Amino acid sequence: VPHFYDSLIATVITYVEDRDPALARMRQALDVHVIDGISTKTLLHRELVRDASVMDGGVSINYLESKLEDG
Fold first, then answer.
1. Are 58 and 19 in contact (CB under 8 A)?
2. C-alpha distances in Å from residue 36, one per residue of 25, 28, 39, 41
3. What is the pLDDT of residues 4-19, one digit of tens each?
4. Four-CA torsion 56, 42, 9, 24, nearest 10 degrees
5. Residue 26 class from Cβ within 10 Å (0-12 exposed, 13-18 middle, 19+ buried)?
């Protein structure tokens, strides 16, 4: 599967009334999320839902790009 379609392999959506429980539920979902046979961005997503800036809600649309540049 070309990387262009990575986001089409699986979509994980969590919903609760508040942000913190939603992030906790997303962390749980991503921790058990497994796709075999191809590389995915799951590890990046696991890192993002644990990132302090993301958890605080203080990120812009450019956050991911700057985070990836910083390594």
1. no
2. 22, 19, 8, 12
3. 776 677 788 899 999 9
4. -40
5. buried
Tokens 């590890």: give the residue. Answer: 43
Spatial contact of 6 and 40, defined as CB atoms under 8 Å apart: yes
Phi, psi of 38 (to 5 degrees): -140, 160
pLDDT, tens digit, 9 for 90 and up, residues 4-61:
776 677 788 899 999 999 999 999 999 998 888 888 888 989 999 999 999 998 899 8
pTM over 0.85: no
Query: How many other C-beta atoms can be found within 10 angstroms of the C-beta atom of residue 49?
Result: 20
Query: Residue for token digits 């959506």?
Result: 13
